[in-house]
Amino acid sequence: MEIDRDTLLLMLRRMWMIRNFELKVMEVHEAGEFTGAAHPYIGEEAVAVGACAALEDTDYIAGNHRSHGHPIAKGGRVDKAMAELYGRVDGYCKGKGGSMHLADYSIGILGESGILGSSVPVAVGAALAAHIRGDNFVSLAFFGDGASNQGALHESMNLASVWKLPIIFLCENNQYAVTTSYAETVAVEHVSDRASAYNMPGLLVDGQDAIAMYEATAAAVKRARAGEGPTLIEGLTYRFEEHSLGLGRVRRGEYRTQEEIDSWRKRDPLDILEKTLISQQIATREECDAINADTVEEVEKATDFARNSPFPEPEALFDDMWANPIPLP
Amino acid sequence: MSQMVFIEAINQAIAEEMRRDESVYIMGEDIRRAVYGATADLLGEFGEKRVLDTPLSENGFFGAAIGSSLVGMRPIVETLTSFMWVGMDQLISQAAKMRYMFGGQATLPVVFRATMFYGGGSAAHHSDRSYPMFMNMPGIKIVVPSNPADMKGLLKAAVRDDDPVIIFEDGTLFGMRGEVPDDADLPQGELVVPFGEAKIVREGTDCTIVGIAGAVNHAVTASNQLAAEGISVEVIDPRTLVPFDKQTVLDSVEKTGRLVIADPAHKVCSAASEIASIVAEEGFWSLQAPIQKVASEQVHIPYSPALEKLVYPTADKIAAAVRRTLAD
């Protein structure tokens, strides 16, 4: 499949944006600039970026607790994302959602869910709306290997297949649900094997390869827009960092060997994409480095934006409960 | 005025709203063949895309309804209260929380019609009256109609509301016949009952009874018995629990000085508990006697009719509670 240069460079930019955003988040979280859970996406950037590059702004996504990568991959704003992590009024959710609940309805990001598997039926619902109205948009649900065991996933895949809904089920298999290995908790060898039970294609893709993720997703999107129904894609990837920031200080006992972590770090999705772009003379080393530097700067600006944004006023506590407001009890 | 049974009022409200607005659709189990009656003839008029029979997957299709509402649809989901447990994650983690959690970006005009089939030998797994559990969770509007006219008008209001609504349909009322105003006779041209406006079903001076759903009718029966004893009872139907029209109740208690609350839900942390606490906090100096709760016993619903009939509020229990408030 041919991918145009602009798309490839946009993918590289968004991957660097996620990487540098997450590095900054780790730094400022460690420094105590904000508290609360945050789950770094480092190592998995190619999955969300490759997938979202195959979508339009008018398509929908829904995601999970490891939630910074999905919106940035879909074209979300890092300043509003960072301000949300800081709990500030200029954050995506005015400080009401935090790290695990970023959303941007203006570009189809229906929201990240801290309850795993829970946003998948919601994404199916967006696809159902397209089906009922005859609209041309598709929906894409991100979930992990852990959530692939949730009943919500199985109910959603069955429902979407029966009704031939335009949805892509995208499993980011980073191989561990916190500390529990997927090999010990998933009854089949690959999550994508489960597609056959729901009569849909199941694709196992190298999740470190953004171009492979793009191609698989583009094929699934085409199928969905043609009314042929859902696809399950498994991007096999790896979480380079701890499950959540600070967890390493609490956890007792190791669950991954250093050799395993090192071997995956050698397959850094940014190295892989840059090598491809340079070897195919799509971009030079200098151009790639400039994109990286550019995103470092944008993340710095976003962090300043977050730091300078005020906390919500106390009155904001009661805002945004209802679309048609009712009196407080 | 037309005479109509409760289930016909539901059917009429759904059909009228689906005719009025193409974004309204209905989904649920066995609705095309209308096994509970409320969805009769919808398939023929509106077609398969807007009348969806679902797999037995409450978590899946509740979520699908919620997701579709985020992007402009107005789903009506038919279910039973007891099946809601299977889909609770979607109701609570998503429907109730999304709007607030996402800083007001999400709008969820989704209606769940949850039937409460109690009192007919359905035993513990099919007889839930679970609205108090949802009152505890911010983010869901809660509707408890007690007669065909309100059922129709409240369901139409629910479909037009932009927030998640659960209508707890009292299955003991499904065969209830009542007067439903014709649209042509209404000044606004249609029957839409706004949320948060309690109805004074019967005026009185000695004691106030607040009834929830089917218990409103038991309260009326009790008040007839008590009238024969010279006791004048005011009966209030809140019609919606979220929002709750507390002023109408407080005004009534100010007049009568006494309060009985009849609630088919389990008595611990019931709707009755909440109403009692509101009046205790804000209407204490109006009270001339302790508040009485007449709610379901704190046991599961037994199958045997000999036992089941002991569980719920009845007219006799309500009348006895009113007499207690008047005892010296």
Summed over residues and divided by their number, the pLDDT of chain A gives a mean of 96
Poorly predicted tracts of residues of chain A: none
- Gross morphology of chain B is globular
Order of helices and strands of chain A: HHEHHEHEHEEEHEHEHHHH
Number of domains of chain A: 1
Biggest sheet descriptor of chain A: 6 strands, parallel
- Enumerate the strands of the largest sheet of chain B in spatial order, edge to edge or round the barrel: 3-2-4-5-7-6-12
CATH fold topology of chain A: Rossmann fold
**Count of all domains of chain B:** 2
Q: On the 0-100 scale, what is the average pLDDT of chain B?
A: 97
So how many helices of chain B? 13
Q: Cα distance, first to last residue of chain A? A: 58 Å
Q: CATH H-level name of chain A... which superfamily?
A: Thiamin diphosphate (ThDP)-binding fold, Pyr/PP domains
CATH topology of the largest domain in chain B: Rossmann fold
Principal-axis shape of chain A equals: globular
Question: Can you walk through the features of this model?
Answer:
- The complex is a heterodimer of chains A (329) and B (328).
- Chain A is of the alpha/beta class and 329 residues long.
- Helix content of chain A is 43%, strand content 12%.
- Chain A has 12 helices and 8 strands.
- Chain A has a 6-stranded parallel beta sheet with strand order 2-1-3-4-8-7, with helices on both faces. A two-stranded antiparallel ribbon of chain A has the order 5-6.
- In chain A, helix 6 (151-162) links the parallel strand 3 (139-144) and strand 4.
- The model of chain A has no long low-confidence stretch (mean pLDDT 96).
- In chain B, strand 13, helix 11 and strand 14 form a beta-alpha-beta unit.
- Helices cover 37% and strands 21% of the residues of chain B.
- Chain B has 2 domains: 2-185, Thiamin diphosphate (ThDP)-binding fold, Pyr/PP domains (Rossmann fold, 3-Layer(aba) Sandwich), CATH 3.40.50.970; 199-326, Rossmann fold (3-Layer(aba) Sandwich).
- In chain B, the strands form 3 sheets. In chain B, strands 3-2-4-5-7-6-12 form a 7-stranded mixed beta sheet, sandwiched between helices. In chain B, strands 9-11-10-13-14 form a 5-stranded mixed beta sheet, sandwiched between helices. A two-stranded antiparallel sheet of chain B has the order 1-8.
- Chain B has 13 helices and 14 strands.
- Chain B is globular, with a radius of gyration of 20 Å.
- Chain B is of the alpha/beta class and 328 residues long.
